[in-house]
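Field reference: sequence -> structure
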Amino acid sequence: CCKTADLMATRNDREQAMVSYRRAEKFAREAVEALGNNTEARRDLSIVCGFIGIYLADGGEIDSGLAMYGQGMKIAGEMASEDPQNTLPQADLAAGHFEIGTILMKGQRYEAAEVRFHEAFDRFSRLVAADSADVDSRISMARSARRAGDACTALAENKQNGGGQSQWRSRAMVWFGKSL
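Structure field:
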């Protein structure tokens, strides 16, 4: 259903795309109910909630997107805390913080976005520390730092920042340095 929703979205048919996303959500919720504490079913529901959240935010519905993505993050967070040694839910949680930061950037909520990118950076850093051959987490760590720098740059360029421009520029430089 998510692939159908993506197809409808590329055709600019937001209504049908949302119908497909909601169908995917319904199926995922039914699977969680039917299978109980099944890890794959819970992860699937988390991912579907994330897809819907991103889709809503891409359409300008920032708060709705954050709320929906937050539902997926709650599931991912529970799974990560249940099995802290399993890197998959840890990576899902790190990626989720990155995506929420991206949604916040779209809504021009730069300070909150920097916090989320920082959290993503820290989580990806822990994954890299546990497995230095984890190239994907290393790349995601750099992307998180870059986006945190972008958020700080946007804050530095904000004229209504009350003189905090130099502080935000300095933070941006630190983040950009971490992205290398």
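Note: The longest helix spans residues 14-35.
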